[in-house]
Fold this sequence. Notes:
The chain is α/β, with parallel strands linked by helices. Helices cover 30% and strands 22% of the residues. The protein has one domain: 3-Layer(aba) Sandwich (Rossmann fold). It has a 6-stranded parallel β-sheet, sandwiched between helices. The radius of gyration is 15 Å and the shape is globular.
Amino acid sequence: MGQNVLLMIDVQQAMFMYEEKLYREQEVVEHLQQLLTKARAAGTPVIFIQHTSETDEDFRENSIGWAIADTVSPLPHERIVRKTSWDSFYQTELDDVLKELGADRLIIAGMQTEFCLDTTCRNAYSLGYQNNVLVSDAHSTFDSKVLSSEQIVAHHNGMLGNRFARLLATEEVHF
């Protein structure tokens, strides 16, 4: 069996600074922490994806919002891959890092469900990472003008789960 890798997508301070709270914010943070604890205990590599923007002040390099959230701080040896689009693979070293690690199963969690998490799940599958897990209760978003955050999460779990990734709850994920 190949290598598992935990991808923590855009769990950055900005996500917790808005007036509107993320859907199930505290529960999702707890699940992200549990995933980190389990991955680290198993010696599974963790890669933090960090959105970086020149136009969005909340994600400008070295801003308060740009920092990885304190609740899931990377350890010194854990990789941080910076990205500038919704796709964690687009013009980043992520694919090279995963190949170097011999990754064949990505455990995917983070923010925001309908943007970076969705795009990364789909592209990972297209790039040949087809044994992935989307952690159904470890990703979140905000309400849109059309759908509630709860509807967005449920929709994406239904669309991505068992198509682009196997859908598992945090408690079902084993490294």
